Automatic annotation (TrEMBL):
One GO MF term attached to the UniProt entry: ATP binding
Origin organism lineage: Bacteria, Pseudomonadati, Pseudomonadota, Alphaproteobacteria, Rhodobacterales
Family affiliation: Belongs to the SAICAR synthetase family.
GO cellular component, one term: cytosol
Catalysis: reaction(s): 5-amino-1-(5-phospho-D-ribosyl)imidazole-4-carboxylate + L-aspartate + ATP = (2S)-2-[5-amino-1-(5-phospho-beta-D-ribosyl)imidazole-4-carboxamido]succinate + ADP + phosphate + 2 H(+)
Alphabetical GO biological process terms: 'de novo' IMP biosynthetic process; cobalamin biosynthetic process
Protein name in the entry: Phosphoribosylaminoimidazole-succinocarboxamide synthase
Pfam family, one: SAICAR_synt
SUPFAM superfamilies: SAICAR synthase-like
Keyword annotations of the record: ATP-binding, Ligase, Nucleotide-binding, Purine biosynthesis
Amino acid sequence: MARRKKIYEGKAKILYEGPEPGTFVQYFKDDATAFNAQKKATIDGKGVLNNRLSEFFMKGLTQVGIPNHFIKRINMREQLIRSVEIIPLEVIVRNFAAGSISTRLGLAEGTPLPRPIVEFCYKDDKLGDPLVSEEHIIAFGWAAQQDLDDMVALALRVNDFLSGCFLAVGIKLVDFKIEIGRIWENDFPRLVVADEISPDSCRLWDIESGQKLDKDVFRRDLGDLADAYTEVARRLGVLPSNVTHAAKPTLIN
Ligand code: TMP
Ligand code: ASP
């Protein structure tokens, strides 16, 4: 079969032209990067796990009525998605202090925040995805005021949904990042959750032990990243409970 046309290659995923207009195929690589790709590795099985986990969360969002780009999983590493105009902002929601907000504001990691805090970073690798304010976003035309209001509402709905999913399996959702895209329907724009939702883009701590089950394991050299992601998948029922990373992930259909 002729190879599909590559639309875009990022650090952890590749987008190919889809089989029908308005669709893309999203391929999950095993590559892991951190600190704007200053640190890099290949983690066997990460792409397979993130493909399956992102499918799980996007389907769950659909079930509770939160619009997103997911159509269906095609195979171990690929999913069919709707093509969207990505808004060039990373939308971060924080429930507890960790990572950059801890550094920036001198808050101990794990400090509960008074309410979920939504932050925006401008997506530009050359600049290291800087934190920006709503003023910047409006003034530079990255999104309109209405889009911003809709993005905050969407991000908070995703936060409620994901926090509940993780709480049910003994995991605290410390923070996460999503990307949001625009889909045009009969000349009307609609905002949808795009990109991926996986332990690459969340901070996940075991509620009892505080053990990290997300990409900080790689960023901070805390152990085996695929083991951590396998544990998240196993708890969510995405993998059978008797699977260990050593045995290699086995997927449930
Ligand atoms: P931060 O504390 O480093 O700002 O990260 C906040 C959340 O966003 C955390 O869950 C990790 C996620 N994140 C990404 O998904 N991509 C990124 O490029 C960065 C910097 C963070
Ligand atoms: N910024 C991403 C992260 O740390 C990856 C990268 O910057 O290379 O999650």
